[in-house]
Every structure is written in structure tokens, then in C-alpha cells.
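Hey,
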Amino acid sequence: MLSDVKGQPRAVEALSAALARKQLHHAWLFQGPEGVGKELAAVGVAQALVCTEKPFEGCGTCAACVRVGKRSHPDVTWLMPEVEQIERGFAGRSDFTNTPSRDIRIEQIRKLQERLAFRALEAPYKVALLVTAHAMNPSAQNALLKTLEEPPKDTVLILISSAPDKLLPTIRSRCSKATFGPLPVDLIAAEVKARAKKGVDDALAAQIAAMASGSLSRALQFNPASLEKRRELIEAFEKLRSNDASAWLALAETWADDRETAEAALELLKVWFHDI
């Protein structure tokens, strides 16, 4: 439900007002940082459109709302890169004949278009949630334009993106926009402490929240035991001198064992630079 989205009053109020007027645009772009409630809001809108108990609001408890949350409602389609499907546990590598793609490919868009061409099976609306929409490759984006220009009747598409600049200007211009900002630090700290099993006091929760750059998902991924290692990275970086190239290369090699480690290190340094 939209009421489950915390820390995003402007976006939630705008979406709730559009639903209340029954004047929801056929295409939306939910834009903002990772982990701030965009996808949860998209699920809330989908529930509102298919809910049998509270149409255009959503109850969160009827069979339709529950199936949307479980990704099993026949009139709500989810689209995301194959790699992301595997990472989320929605699919296995054996489900794909070729190497799973990090892009949303044109074949996926064409299948979506075929599905949207049919009437809704149960609900008054068909809803498509394009998670990580900026992962569409150029061919996929150009194919989606046709649907945005000539949308099937009673269809709502929601593009969810943390990098909307990677979408074609023509796609962005055809979407109504709901902008989501970084979450308040105190809200993130409270969620971190509430969801932690043990070992997270107020001070540690506040530290994790401060390092999360407004992203709840990023905060929940923090391993408290790894904070010491992050402190080592910052201290090592502070010791670097502009005329000592060998030290820079040595630090890079230390933190570049794999892509995930390197990206995490760069993200931490970005947050650190922002703070100072």
C-alpha cells in the first residue's frame, strides 16, 4: 500500500491524489536514489488499481493486493534484467538458455507488449512495473516508445529508475514523474535498529544510517563487522599523497579483488567526500 512508503510525503501525496481523482496517467517514471521506496510505491499503486475492496486506494489484505505483493497477480507484470531476477531469487540460471543479461532486452519488451495487448483477466487495469528501467538497452527503449505513444486501453506502466538520465528524452517526456528523495537519517537509523536481530545500538544504527546516503536498502546491507574494514579504507586514502603514484596503485589493487568490492569501496569514498 502507498501508506507503507515512509519518508516520501510529496511523492505519496501526488500519487494518492491522482488515484483519488481516478486520473492516473498511463505512464509514470518513479525516479530517485536506490532504496528509498520507489518500488514499494509502485507496488502500492498497482494494488490500488487492482484492489477489490478499496479501488483506487488499496487495502493490502484482499486476495488481489496480496498477489500483487507476491508477484503473482495475472494483470500485474514485472520486468527487470535477467541478472537481477537471479539475484532476487525470482529465477535461476537454468531458466535462461543464454548467458543472463544485465540489460532489459528488446525481446522482453516485445513479450510485454504482447501481454498488454490482451484484456485484463481479473482487474479493471493492467499494470506493468519496469524495475531498473534504465537498464533497457537502446533497442528496448525504442521499442517501448510505441507503447508509450499508443498505450493499450486501461493500462498503466511504471518505470522505476535510479538513473533516469540513461533513459531516452522521448521516454522521459512521455511519463508523468514522481520524484523520490533520500530518506531522513533518523528514519533509516530507526529501521536499521528495528530490523537488526542483535548487536545494533543507537550509536551504531546512527553510524550506519549516516553512511547510507539516504538509502534504506544500502543501510540494511551494511554488516556492522565490516565497518572496521571501511574505516581502514578511509584512513589509507587519507594517507595518500598526490606525488606518490605507487601508493595509489597499491590501494587500488587492495580494493579491486572483484567488481563488487571495488564498487563498494568507491561508494564509501563518495559518501565520505560528500560528508567532508
